[in-house]
Amino acid sequence: MTNRLYYTEPYRTDFDGTVVAVDTVDGRTHVMLDQTAFYPTSGGQPFDTGTLGGAAVTEVVDREDGAIAHVVSGSLKVGDVVQGAIDWARRFDHMQQHTGQHVLSAAFDRLFDVRTESFHMGTLSVTIDLAREVTAAEVARAEDEANRIVWQDRPVAIRFASAEEAATMPLRKESIRTGPLRLIEVEDFDLSACGGTHVSRTGGIGVIAVGGWEKFRGGSRVEFLCGGRALNRFRLWRDSLAATQKCLSVAPEEMAAAVERMQGENKSQQRTLRGFQEKLAGHEAHTLLEKAVRSGDQLVLVEALEGWDAQGLKAIAVAAAAEQPNAVVALFSTTTPALAVVARGREATTDAGALLKGLVAQFGGKGGGKPDLAQGGGLAGSPAQLVESARTLLG
Prior knowledge:
Elements: E1 3-4, E2 14-25, E3 28-33, E4 35-36, E5 50-52, E6 55-62, E7 68-72, E8 81-86, H1 88-112, E9 116-121, E10 126-130, H2 136-151, E11 156-161, H3 163-167, E12 181-186, E13 190-193, E14 208-216, E15 219-226, H4 227-248, H5 255-288, E16 293-295, E17 298-305, H6 310-323, E18 327-333, E19 338-344, H7 352-363, E20 366-370, E21 373-379, H8 383-393
Parallel strand pairs: 1-4, 17-18
Antiparallel strand pairs: 2-3, 2-8, 3-7, 5-6, 5-8, 6-7, 9-10, 10-15, 11-12, 12-13, 14-15, 16-17, 18-19, 19-21, 20-21
Helix pairs in contact: 1-2, 5-6, 7-8
């Protein structure tokens, strides 16, 4: 078993260890040491990275036999005494997020008796899954209470206890582990069994900011950020807000109303444009049919049209097929990737869906439809290539 230095020294950034085993797993080198400060993926917290004997540590795995495997880019051999160095920025970020999770989960538990079912630390934010749905007011109160504990800079202590001793303690969540337990205690606020790395005082968390929440499996999933991550999210929102404010020429407090107003105006304009397109489609279809060529018992019309969206192309194709019952119409946009619409009149025999399928097979994209009408998009050919291919498929 590996001696886990991070259990008692989470602020330690370097150490010396002796290589006790080297394995190759799925083509990757796994190095085991007699002791390590590298944290392996466990309990919702990702692994540490850094270097080991000059080799980059790209992953750290907690093996079932109690050893910790360091996945390294270089080669080491049994008996080597190597120096390990932790990527401190990554480690401290994880310490902030994990301790912040304890405090926020305890706030929900103490204020509303809402249990945290699971916790996940991603690369950009952290989530906790709560046992029931929570309201906006409850989220705000829990966030305020959690930050009160952060700003009081309370001590965060590491304790060890047997399973029997832990059973008599006020743990926030009962542990399912057997044997000695490692406990993380936020003074007069939270006591939880945990093997992760944590800051020594709550002030090290910096701030706990809830980014959002949603319904999830009968409960709520709450996204939050602590410390440096909260600062990075604030900078992102600040820059986005400033850019949007500049475009809209309104004060920050007026932005939501301005965006809502613009959306309403856009929908109105889209309805007006759609009406004009539908009226124009009949005239466009009539004009285009003059270019149709006869192929057996059918009239074939294949064109690429500039300035029309999917709905416009569909309206023209349907109008042309209605005007000439024996017509087969294939229309494409001039954009890349291209849109495509195929329609046929009631007396035509070509399968519109099959024709579109043949075009997608040749140019990519996706789409589908019925024998009398099909449409798709994402076709990678040029307008000339698409027209030529459609005419070839139509014989």
